Amino acid sequence: MNHAMSGPHSDLPLDTVLERLKLTAARPFEDARPIPPEVHHSHTFLEHERGTVFMQEWICVGRSDEIEGHGDYLTHDIAGVPVVVVRQADGGVKAFVNACAHRFSRLLANETGSGRKITCPYHAWTYDCAGKLIRAPYMEMKEGFDASKHGLRPLHVEVWEGFVYVTLADEPAKPVARSLMSLRDNIVGRYDMACYRTVMRETMIWNANWKNLIENFSESYHVPIAHGKTFARHAKKPEDYVCGEDSDHYSYHRAAQPSDERPGAAHSANTRLEGEWRRTMVDFCVFPSHLVTLMPDYLWYISVQPAGADQMRATWGVAVPPEVLADVSDEEYDTWVSDFRTYMDTANGEDKPLVEALHLGTASPLLPNGALHPIERNLWQFTRYLARVCVA
Ligand code: FES
Ligand SMILES: [Fe+2]
Q1: Cβ neighbours of residue 78 under 8 Å, at least 6 residues apart?
Q2: Are residues 209 and 323 in the same domain?
Q3: Were 95 and a residue from 37, 67, 155, 347 both cysteine, which residue would form a disulfide, CB within 3.0 to 4.6 Å?
Q4: What is the tens place of the pLDDT at every residue in 190-246?
Q5: Residues 204, 114 share a domain
Q6: pLDDT digit string (tens) for 79-117?
C-alpha cells in the first residue's frame, strides 16, 4: 500500500469501528454527524469494506459507448480483481476476470482496446469474445484435456443508462435497473444519458480515503467557495438545492441554474428536456462508488475505489449529448476536447486539496462534534447505506 499511515484510528478493533458507524448512521438527519473518522482510517475496516462492499456491490467500470464494436473491451480493477468487459457479436456485453485459465496470468494490459480474440502473452492460450478457450497450444499432448472446461471466469455485468456495471458477487442481490428504477423514472431518465457520447476517460490517484471523495461529491455546499474557476459560474445558491428521497441504492441532489445559457443548460436542439429541467443539474451517487454530475449539455462521472485506507483511485470520464457534439467540427475536435480536459483538470485541482485535507483532519484523535448542513443530506444517506451493508 502506498502512503500507508499509522495513526490512532488505524489499528482499532473492527467491532469498535462498526459500532461507531452504526451509532452515527442511527442519528436523525436533524442531528446528523459526519462519517466517524475511524471509518476512513481503520485498516481492519478497510478489509471488511472490501469484502462487504466492493466484493458484493455493482461497480461502474465505464460507459457502454466506449466499447461499441464487436471485440472492443475495457479493463478495470475491482477490489484487487482484474476485470475485463467485452462487446459481443450480438451487441451484448460480457465480463470476465482478466486472468488466464491456464496459470492465471493477467491477460489484457491496456485499459481499453479491441480484438476478436484474447491471447495470453504467456503460452498463447486464446479465447473468443465470449470467453471460450479456442486454442491451447500443444495441449493435445495432455490426455483427456477438455478445452470446454477451461474458459474465462465469467462475472455478472449490466448496462444501465449508458453505464457499465460489474459485480464480483456470484449471486447479485438485485439488478442495477431495479435498484435505480425510481431514480430513472422520476429524475435522470428524461436526460437520456445513454445517448451522451464519451469524449474522455482518465484516472487519478489522490491521498485520501475513497469515501472522502464520495462525501465531497455528495454536496454542493462547497461549490461557491471552492470552485471559483469552474462550477461556481453556474451561479446556483445553497437555497436552490433540493436533496432527493432516502434510498437504499442511491442519493441525489439537484438545482436549476438561473441562466438558460450553456454551460449547464440544454442546447437549443435538445428536445428531450422540458421547462426547468433544461437548466437543471442532478448530482447523484449510485452506491457505493459511482458519482455523476448530470447536466443538460454534458455529464461527468467518477468511479472511485480504495487503494489502501489512505489513497483512492478514481476513473472518470466526460460524455456529451449528440446535439452538443454536432456543433464541434472535425478540425476543432482535438482542441475542444483538450480545452474540456483542462476545465475538468481545473475543477479536480480545486477539489483535490480539500478532499486530501478531509483525510488529514480526520486522522486526529481529538475532534469537535461535527455537523451537516441541510443540503448535505446525501452524506447522511451514504452513511446509512454504509452502515446497512457493513454492519451485520
Ligand atoms: S498463463 Fe496464460 S497461457 Fe499460460
Ligand atoms: Fe467539488
Answers
A1: 54, 59, 61, 166, 168, 305
A2: yes
A3: 155
A4: 999 999 999 999 999 999 999 999 999 999 999 999 999 999 999 999 999 999 999
A5: no
A6: 999 999 999 999 999 999 999 999 999 999 999 999 999
Q: At 96, which amino acid appears?
A: F
CA-nearest of 302, 176, 165, 183 to 246 is 183
Torsion region of 292: left, alpha or beta (phi above 0 gives left; psi -120 to 50 gives alpha): beta
Determine the Cα–Cα distance for residues 126 and 208; give it in Å rounded to an integer.
40
Q: CB of 120 closer than 6 A to ligand 1?
A: yes
Decide which of 141, 167, 193 is a domain's last residue.
Answer: 167
CA of 114 to the centre of ligand 1 (A): 20
Residue whose CB lies within 8 A of the most ligand 1 atoms, among 84, 97, 100, for a mutation test: 100
CB 105 within 8 A of CB 118: no
> Does residue 172 lie within any of the structural domains?
no
Of the candidates 138, 75, 148, which has an alpha carbon nearest to the alpha carbon of residue 109?
A: 75
The CATH number linked to 148 is 2.102.10.10
- Grid cell digits, residue 152: 474465462
Domain shared by 115 and 228, yes or no: no
Pull the grid cell for residue 124: 498463447
Residue 1 forms part of a structural domain: no
Among candidate residues 167, 201, 230, the one where a domain is terminated: 167
For 305-323, b/e burial (b = at least 16 CB within 10 A) is bbbbbbbbbbbbbbbbbeb
Q: How many secondary structure helices (H) and strands (E) does the chain include?
A: 10, 17
Q: What CATH number did the domain enclosing 263 receive?
A: 3.90.380.10
| CA of 103 relative to ligand 1 center, distance in Å | 5
Q: What is the pTM of this model?
A: 0.97
Domain containing residue 159: 59-167
Report the nearest-CA residue for atom 1 of ligand 1. Answer: 103
Nearest Cα neighbor of 284 from 256, 321, 243 is 243
Cβ of 22 less than 6 Å from ligand 1 = no
